[in-house]
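Hey, I was hoping to borrow your eyes for a little while. I'm sending you its amino acid sequence along with the backbone structure tokens. Take your time with it, there's no hurry, and the full record follows here.
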Amino acid sequence: MSDIRSIAAVRPRPGFSHRATHHPGFVIGGIITLVVLLTAALALVWTPYPVTSLNIAEKLRPFSAEHLLGTDHFGRDILSMLMVGAGNSVLVGLVAVGLGVGLGSPLGLYCAMRPGLISEAVMRASDLAFAFPALLTAVMITAIYGPGTINSIIAIGIFNIPVFARLTRGVSLSVWKMEYVTAARAIGVPSLQIARRHMLPNIASPLIVQATIQFALAILAEAGLSYLGLGTQPPQPSWGKMLHEAQTMLYFAPMLAILPGACIAVTVLGLNLLGDGLRDLLDPKLRHAAKPRNT
């Protein structure tokens, strides 16, 4: 009888939405990321002022009702430039991470399911790519093929490929040895069908978490390339380019550097918090069954 009461007293396991809303890091990171994404989407259709129009007569204006965040040394509205800069950062991050997931994950799956000479060569090439810092590799590629947003995306995306290839291979190897996968192989299920039905659903969680982390790193890399003059080119604004232009005016116009720097820092912080929250929420080790209530 006591066993029956204990079973009845077990608390129901909280669902994902309940755990997500009670995870402070996930909530804060999600709000920050959502604000950045909405700002980037809004900048595609509307900004307070055109970012390419110069008005020297209104240069270096302070905060006001007309220009909420003031103007820069060319009279451009800073709020408008930050909004468009958010759009450029989100674009670079999404496409670069998409390249990494779209090319790296299939390579990792292939290496896990088809061990051999080709798989070993792919993994050794990934190790070679990790021998060079990501930003240095991006600088080299953009210096060779020329500055610009497209080349920045390609440079950052190339580094993401081995990241996702190694991660996918690592998590896929453990799934490949599971009994249900072994049974599917034994009855002759094609490898492509096994990957689609059994492998991908079980490795999606770590890939999603890694994608948020790489998204933050891609924004940092894009800002660094733009700061060096190898990323987004004028007249299109970017957060890194705004920092570069403001470095000679720190003493008499510090907000020109503080505002884009704060945007980069807050965005990266939000994505990191979101990634850490997703890791905690999607980790099966943390989904333990609730203990019986004490009587």
User: Anything to note?
Assistant: Residues 288-295 have pLDDT under 50 and may be disordered. Residues 191-227 form the longest helix (37 residues). The chain is about 70% helix and 0% strand.
